[in-house]
Amino acid sequence: MPRLSKFRASRTSPRWLVAGVAIALSASATGVAAQSAAANRTGAASVARYDLPAMPLSDALVRIAQQSGRSVSVDPALVTGVRAQPVQGAYSVEEAVRRAMQGTGLEVWVTSNDTISARRVPLAGAAAELEPVRVLGTAETAFAHVDGYVAHRGSAGMKTDTALVETPQSISVVTSDQIRAVKASSVADALGYTPGFASQSPAFSRMVDDFMLRGFNVAAGNSGQLRDGLKLQSSVYDGGQEPYGLERVEVLRGAASVLYGQLGPGGVVNTISKRPTTEPLRELNVEAGSYGRRQYSGDFSGPLTEDGVWSYRLTGLVRDADNWMDHVPDDRTYLAPALTWRPSAATSLTFLASYQRIRTKFAAPLPAAVTLNGALPRDLFIGEPNFDRYNTDSYTAGYVFEHAFNDRVKVRQSARYFTADGNWDYLSFGGLQANGQTLRRGVISRTEKSYGVAGDTSLEWKGDTGPLDHTVLVGADYYKSSYTSHRHSGSVAPLANIYAPVYGARPIVQTGADYGIATRSDAFGLYAQDQIKLQDRWVVVLGGRHDWADTKQKSYQTGADTTLQDSATTGRAGVVYLADNGLAPYVSASQSFSPTIGVDRSGNAFEPTKGTQYELGLRYEPPGSNMLYSAAIYDLTQRNALTVDPADSTFSVQTGKVRSRGLELEAKMGSGPWNVTAAYAYTDARTIKANDPLLVDQRVSLVPLHTASLWVDRDMRSLGLTGLKLGAGVRYGSSTNLAGYPGNVSGQFLVDALASYDFGAVSPDMAGLSLTVNARNLFNRGFVTCSGATGCRYGDPRTLYATVSYRW
Q: Which of 65, 134, 433, 576 is 20 to 30 A from residue 546's alpha carbon, by CA?
């Protein structure tokens, strides 16, 4: 669907003409655009079947816009407190709106840009006075661009384009506008203002997408990383996703295997690729920043044919940069072409591909004992410049297909092939000698290759059984993955003085011994879900799934083969109540499962870990506003976790249990010149059962008990500073626990800032030209993140970026 921008009154327009934004919320993102194009070409009025009971008029107009694909925009003051008449039958959009407004004193008005609006019925003999049209909300689908930071729809929670207020589980959406505003260089940066989220420092996340949600790890495909609804990477070290190529990032928190199969219990991070638009979009960016950063990016999209049947998008980025750690580059190349074929209103096919090249060096984990006390310089590079490398090349190619047989039945199919090659050499921290300045180092050399094939086919049926409206989704998905890692060790001379390092030692790699692994997995699942509506007040979600997962792993060191054949049935149930005032309380229960590779002391293969979550939440979407507030409390437990075997500490048993309980609050607002996103999370994630008494009742490492964030930006036009926009954000995390270490990791309080200037706002000759300056960690606060007592990394210092953009 094309990007829909706000209509603006021209300089010659009457003062009463205030621009509105259409509420064209279609049931099918691709189908609506084609339907509109087809209607424009034929001149025929589009007819849709409606079955709408009496309800608030604002809700009825949204439903009509959804079903018709036409823009419907009215002044909220006209419809507040007004009830619509039932609309039942096949009508044009104008007739459907007219029937809904019968007896309300309002009549249909079609604007010059073909938007359906409303005005009061004029008195006899009086001249018709048009009512002002004000913004009701952004025309939106779960896959297209959203102006600002407030998304009202998502796909991760239901596998369908669904309103967030109708989803009985916590879900956050980070839009591409927010990604740009906070100057995200990684997915972790993009999610820094999201509740329930934790990650390692940018020293690590600039290479790898590896997160914590509600205290549980979310990394590669089988633990919760998705792209366009499909599992993506086979290994966490396949390289992090480039945020410039994303339209949005959806975070579904909590157990979600009912939709996606084997996953960790923490949730899902689903990134949505930028897709072709039917309106021209052209953008070029030139960027310079701290540590020699130079970056060039561009995004181009639009129709390829006059009838809009074919459209394209090409997104690319090239970065040449150093890093705040000595001798570490941060170079990246990203290219993503996309092509959409939409031959009719009912059918669309989009091809998506990407290439990504990363050239940097691995940030080796460091002991807490020498980082928390500041014994190591923050910019110290412990490797050898001519040896260390983290080089990955990854490719994806896939498609998204959708066909509507009629207004009730729709089929979808998506598939993708992914492959990545990596060469990864680094020196590890071996320990400081007695003088406190000479560092022993180990040698690690890795050659890795992975691929994945993912597919999902589903059938959606919309119908009714008496007073109940159903959206039934049944489908099957498949994920085949392979990960091969050859790993070798070696030796190297110590680094004589960490405070005045002299490099040049030659690491010796022992190529004879290979302690790597090869893992192959095949997963197949069948799922069914029913979204049931009663009187447009109650939404009941029932879902079930059964999975089969086969996993084989080979150890190159021992030659041992491990084979797992697992199956599991998971489910979800939830209820949402939709009140007239915008409140939407909900309650839900959901499950997860994930295979565990390995055997116990008797040679028996481990059972899958299983998770169960109970959640109680409340959303508030004030009618006629561009705001969304969310709150949730939850109890999430993972069973069958590995813990040390009391009879033989070299083996494990599955008697461990990890539980996470917490509270999450989130607010997003776009009001006039303001954009605001705020979040708070209390996350009490801890081991409640383990055979090691030192671990019992210990909080999960890396996960703060309290996190809070606030980002605010404002267009300064109304203050007389036309073209200027200022913003600032704060990110807070309390101290974190380190199991097996006597101390905690101190909390962090980081400040980010934004200043941008739109030259076109003051000079028409410079339309489309803008300058943006960003700062991350503005006050240069030092901090450390630790995933364990031997897995610490220093945080990034202050970084500054200046970007010149031109859009036309």
A: 576
